[in-house]
Amino acid sequence: MASHWEEFYSTHLPPTDFEDNRKLLKEFCERHHKTNQRIVLITSGGTTVPLEHNTVRFVDNFSAGTRGAASAEYFLEHDYMVIFLHRLKSLEPFTRHFTGQMFLDMLELNDRGPSTTITVKPDCVDIVAPILARYKNAQEGGRILYVTFTSVSDYFWLLRAACECLAAFQSNALLYLAAAVSDFYIPSSEMPTHKIQSQNGAPTISLQLVPKLLAPLVNLWVPHAYVVSFKLETDESILIAKARDSINKYKHKLVIGNILQSRRYRVVFVTPQSNYEVVLTRDQMLNGMEIEDSIVANVVDSHSDFISNLQY
Ligand code: PAZ
């Protein structure tokens, strides 16, 4: 009998641009594998659960993509190659610093004379220049690949395709699963084709459990990689127990637990042996430090230990 996750793939079609993305993933991984680089797959943002095949309405998952986008920048600073698998239109590395009208407010339009020029306002140069330099460095060195998903089904297909390409990196591959993935969905076969009509009365929507992909991911797809998952809770009293359940069940290396309201300044690292907190002080926050800087530094250290322990 097929397992729950196998059945999911056999009953849900890949996204329309799947083959293009698979090619990009393959090319990116092959290029960096040749030079023996460390590579991280970051998943970021929330998945949707469509209510109709021609989707007008969907159930969404909470996540702005801040954790994933900020972490991508820090992994690049630690010389990792980055696959940034993220929800379409969620926050991205580098551009995340200029949301809304902010970027336009930093520009000056000079339309005197024969030609129009646009410049960065002198007092904004110190803000834009270092971010632009890091962006160009990552972009021009081909060190980051952006791949997008929207629905939970898109995410599943792309996650497996990325893992297939990452397997060759063995222990040099790090998976940093920060996306907020739906736990419930409507199977394709039970979804109406067209927009649900209100004249038929309030619909009764029955959701089913999504398969847990951590099991095949850890055991079959990337068995030699360093796998880190995140766990979000709203009830502090169950956070560590849930994180520990996850690590005991899936046997990966690390679960990073966080509480919705405090996730910007406190997380807890749960390993098979211990748990410890990573916290940002008020002063550090006021000085513009981000918790992802410390999270990534800790994860990189643990990944390095993991690699060196394999060599002895
Ligand atoms: O994207 P964001 O910065 O607003 O939030 C990050 C997060 C809370 C989604 C992430 O840290 C996380 O916990 N992801 C896993 C969520 C889950 O338990 O499925």
From TrEMBL:
Residues 165-272 form the DNA/pantothenate metabolism flavoprotein C-terminal domain. PANTHER family: CORNICHON-RELATED. It comes from Photinus pyralis. Signal peptide: none annotated. InterPro entries: CoaB-like_sf (IPR035929), DNA/pantothenate-metab_flavo_C (IPR007085). Belongs to the PPC synthetase family. SUPFAM superfamilies: CoaB-like (SSF102645). It comes from the Eukaryota. This is DNA/pantothenate metabolism flavoprotein C-terminal domain-containing protein. GO terms for biological process: coenzyme A biosynthetic process. One of its GO terms (molecular function) is catalytic activity.
